[in-house]
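The records we work with from here on pair a chain with its fold. Taken together, the tokens spell out the fold as the letters spell out the chain. The record below shows the convention in full.
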Amino acid sequence: MKRAALTILGVILLARVVLAQSPNANQEFQTTNIVLYNQMDEFEARSPTAQVLGLFIKQLGARAAALWRDQKPMSGRNGFIAVAIRPDRTMKLSVDVAGKFKPEVTASLERVMKTIGVPQVKDGPIAFALHFKLCGGSTKSKSDTGGVQIPQLWQKAAKAESKALAIPDEILPLVWKAKPSQKTESRFFVPEGYDLQELRPTGGKILRPRGWFYTEGHRKHTFMWTISKEDSSKGPYETGVRIQCFAGVQEATGKNPKEVVQSFLDGKKKTAAVISNRDEQTQGLFTRVGLEAKEPLRLGAKQKPHRILYSCFWSNEADIVVIVISGTTTDLWEKHADAFDAMTGFDLIDMKRFEKDDRTKASNVRGQPRR
């Protein structure tokens, strides 16, 4: 198996931050290190914020420690927990101790972590390993691929292939295929400082920074939700995220959903200073594209320079367009960038709701785009 090169400094810094936040008084289980299976730049681009990921890993270490808390004393051993997360918030764990896969421990830990929730990743899977010592650890340590340990479960899934496989993008589809995920609801991982906000009436979900406001405004073929630092029900807001879902766009405009999105972005390129473009990416039933730009916006009597990320989706199977606008004044962008990133993963609709209640037709807002 081929393994993507790691930026060692980045791994060390991430490990120091997370492990420093996770002091472990349980002598049976002690976390020691974190290793990434993605390239560092790829890991950073796909991952949630460092704060969200750090809190998730802290929870992972605490729950793993609890599994060994009541174990009888054993000779020192080393192990690691390999974690793989996909953009649809499905997660697979693999616990290896002394070079052997532990299916019972893995299953128990997966059950516990799914009740806590799975953090949102984007643009592809992430994978990392949390290394630990049991009862002080062992001086003997098995390793492979230049000292990076690969889970036995992954190695087994890759044996049938006659070519080298890149980790994680080429190996993980085989891991999921070899051991299909159970059909359980993927819960949101809600970090400290956030609440889980329902998007009414579709039953969707999004992380809302605690203290921020939620408003909604819908018409016959349009749904609109706003999460903002200021109360947008009382006037214009300066900092926030607005999600707009348009159904029946071809009937209304004469253009297909992709053409509507392209026309919208072309218009922005003419009126705003583009910082960067976001290439097309397929996300389930939707295709996503976007751009980040600076443009002046009027707030009341004053006009202020704003920095805005436009994320646009068109459905590949239905006449639907979704536009997400995340923005604030230019001077406040860095302050709120983590909040915007935390709100990246949202579910637009809860399909289970429409199985029980047909008052809002699912055909009008089918699919669940994620920014």
